[in-house]
Amino acid sequence: MLKHIGVTDLCVGMYVQELSGSCVERPFWSKSFLIQNDEVLEKVLASDIVGAWIDLSKGADVQASVLDENTAQAQQPPRLSTRSCTEVPGPRPRVAMSEELLRAVKLCSSSKAAVMEMFSDLRMGRIVQLDRVTDMVGEISDSLLRHPDALLSLVRLKTADEYTYMHSVAVCGLMIGLARQLDLPPLLVQEAGLAGLLHDVGKMVIPTAILAKPLPLNDQEHTTMRTHPEEGARMLADSRHFTSRVQDVCLHHHEKVDGSGYPHKLCGTQISLFARMAAVCDVYDAVTSDRPYRDRWGPAESIRKMAGWSGHFDQKVFHAFVKCIGIYPVGALVRLQSGRLAVVMEQHADYLLTPRVKVFYSASSRMPLPPECIDLACGQDSIVSIESEKTWGFKSLEALWVGTGQGSESRFG
């Protein structure tokens, strides 16, 4: 019996009779095949295939698409989750942003400590405590389900000194959010999070004098810095705990779709889907974070600038990323139609252009206003432009949405 399904419903164990899409002429798609493992599944998901006819007499249905557990364990290295790809959590009500921020502060602190330990173990060739890493990725994933804005916004406030470790936590969260936006199966969502967590582990072999240099790097230092993807991939391969997909993200997250990236100058779909995802997540967190040699950009300003970088990102992946974090991410400074300035407090679940904001300043009189929260989805006002914190001379705007006066000082212990 044949059954037609969308490409995102494909799972390991299904027998594909025919695929539909512009890639069907490639040799890989020239015959029917069994999706035996995640590597085969990813090839399909990374292509522009839109649907498939599956043969239920030869493989699994949508409701029973998991290989025998013993077979799966024999074929694959340890996984982050034992849930099947059909066990997709139903819609969960969001908790309040303020409530999840309190949880996120504690999660960031514990995650920072776990990442420091894991990176040290990998650098020294010690056995990684995989259960602890698994639990951490799961906790980050659960935080995003409770409220998608809290942790991803808070983790941007890391200091330059803790950048490498908290950047890994941030990219983990961004990869999970982006993978969900792309409708990837739960096992791949969790693996995307792990890949994000480990993408920069190779920086452990880069001299601190280069990582923490308060000035732009010279040519020799740039050459040294560009060795970190290969060094990281080597560490992960030596560990033998991590899948080839996770290793590939570590190796290729600095590739660009126009072929100008490194280390291998891959282009287009030569770059794996996960690596194309990591390229966007890595850059976004980097430019929205304070670095030793420059101040961070605002989140909305970063999205606007990244959108103009021709040839850098996969456009489908980038557009999905924007839907994931919002056109006006939490913390963005915006001008309203009324002439007031506001900070974005929270994304609307359904509408990218109408977040909840906190008004605090008059652009015309250049005077502070009593802080007031407004839900733009109710039509009370509207955003007319993105503003720069530097232009207005504002500092520590995060105090308006985090609810603390600590500024950008580390909250992660």
From TrEMBL:
It comes from the Bacteria. Residues 70-85 have a biased composition (Polar residues). Signal peptide: none annotated. Residues 70-89 are annotated as: Disordered. Residues 140-337 form the HD-GYP domain. This is HDIG domain-containing protein. It comes from Pseudomonas ogarae (strain DSM 112162 / CECT 30235 / F113).
